[in-house]
Amino acid sequence: MNVRLFEIFTSIEGEGILFGTKTLFVRLAGCPFTCFYCDTKESLPLDSGKEYTIEEACKLIDFNLKNQTYKVNFTGGDPLIQHYAVAELARYIQTKKIPTYLESSCFDSSKFNHVLPFFDIIKIEFKTKDSEFVDIIHYEKLIENALKCLKLSITAKKTTYIKIVVSSKTKTNDFTDLIGKIFSTVSSQDINGFIIQPTYGISEPSLDLLLNLYDKVYPYYNGVKVVPQLHKLIGAP
Question: Which range has the worst mean pLDDT, 63-72, 142-151, 225-234?
């Protein structure tokens, strides 16, 4: 079995509920989707990066893993594109007693379920209609899969949190509908966080819009937070 990796590096986590932690990032190559705000476009081509055997990739992880690393973050691209290989690499990390963290758009609940046993922390990312992740015809199927992944993660008792990237294009009514679907599926006690992440450098949302969206989540989950991509503020990758 081989895996195509774009890069492996240590940095400071700048997103989500664990921002500020020292993290080894394993960036998988390949993502066929089209979010207009994507900040890792160079890793999207399925033939980007370099191909390794699983053994070679594990050695590369060992070489880059630094002391006092809090967690290993599998990101992309989208890790679920290479779910079999990702499961093997995450299994290897777990033998080192370091928390494993999955960062995915959760577009395929079957692939997600395959890798789930090998991850400790799960970010379930819900895309808004304006993200251009998929066309509007396939959008509902995407949300259906993300909701299934959310339920699977909670049932498996993983540390689970939700993230939604918003922009100036985000429509309040669409956002409200999405929140309703999420919290008709799970309760506030089921999740470990809810992050609204504003886009950076492109179609940035106004403060008024962020406050409005925050207010839509708060009645369901009063621990909601607006967290920008903090690593960009310190010049970290």
Answer: 225-234
Decide: residue 43, CB within 10 A, 0-12 exposed, 13-18 middle, 19+ buried: buried
From CA 86, how far away is CA 43, in angstroms rounded? 16
CATH superfamily, region 2-233: Aldolase class I (3.20.20.70)
Can you give the pTM of this predicted structure? 0.95
CB 152 within 8 A of CB 113: yes
222-231 per-position pLDDT tens digit: 999 999 999 8
- Give me 85's structure tokens: 């290989």
Reading the block at residue 67, the tokens are: 């002391």
Instruction: Strand 50-53: give its sheet, edge to edge.
Output: 50-53, 2-12, 22-28, 71-75, 100-104, 121-125, 159-166, 194-198, 225-226
